[in-house]
């Protein structure tokens, strides 16, 4: 199993020295945070430092479930541009959010739109040779909006219908109140990447493993035993921890 770090964890002002330090700590790859304004530069720098790369595609201002055709067009345009850029840099994967329905009552209609647009992106990514991964999201427990996908059932159906790989966010899953091992069994071979952090099962705090309710306990052993080889991506709150604190924890991780 490979240990990766999400660059969101480091904050928006990253240098080549930071990336070299990350590599030295035993990190094999970095997931570039597309909404860092210098994301494109980080992609080049990470390559130069000999780190494998993937990307968390942008999702702010974008929505694959939108009813607004202009927003939909722009969303597909931005995501397609990044997928092509990732292919040019030989990045390994791109993680995607499937957007949200404006209102809970509209979720069935919005789901059709999500599927249609995911098919378009899957086609672009497969032609570009980039693996597209769909992430599970936090449910809006108020039911004001509806995030796709915020139940395991909805997520696994989207993965199968659109032929996508899965990026399992363990923190989101805890807030979904779903069991990690049951979910991993349902995902089977679709699991390609894991976003790894701890929380209190109520808020998506992105804590270091062990600093919350210990939701990651036993997970690495299970994944190892199942022969999971994909990246385990530390996605840690940059507003709470320094890079050194994160790397100290990463060095101690036994994968
Ligand atoms: Zn995400």
Explain what you see.
α3 runs parallel beside α4 (107-128). The chain has 255 residues and is an alpha/beta fold. It has a domain at 63-79 and 99-110 and 136-232: Alpha-Beta Barrel (TIM Barrel). The model has no long low-confidence stretch (mean pLDDT 97). It has helices at 16-24, 39-48, 69-88, 107-128, 152-162, 170-175, 180-187, 219-225, 243-252, and strands spanning 2-6, 29-33, 52-56, 93-96, 100-101, 131-135, 146-147, 165-169, 191-196, 231-234. The chain is 40% helix and 17% strand. The protein contains nine helices and ten strands.
Outline of this structure?
This protein has 255 residues and is α/β, with parallel strands linked by helices.
Oligomer: single chain
Give me the Rg, rounded. 17 Å
Strand content: 15-25%
Secondary structure: number of strands:
10
Structural class: alpha/beta
Secondary-structure element series: EHEHEHEEHEEHEHHEHEH
Give the CA-CA distance, first to last residue.
Answer: 6 Å
Protein name: Xylose isomerase-like TIM barrel domain-containing protein
InterPro entries: IolE/XylAMocC-like, Xyl_isomerase-like_sf, Xyl_isomerase-like_TIM-brl
Domain Xylose isomerase-like TIM barrel: 21-237
Pfam family, one: AP_endonuc_2
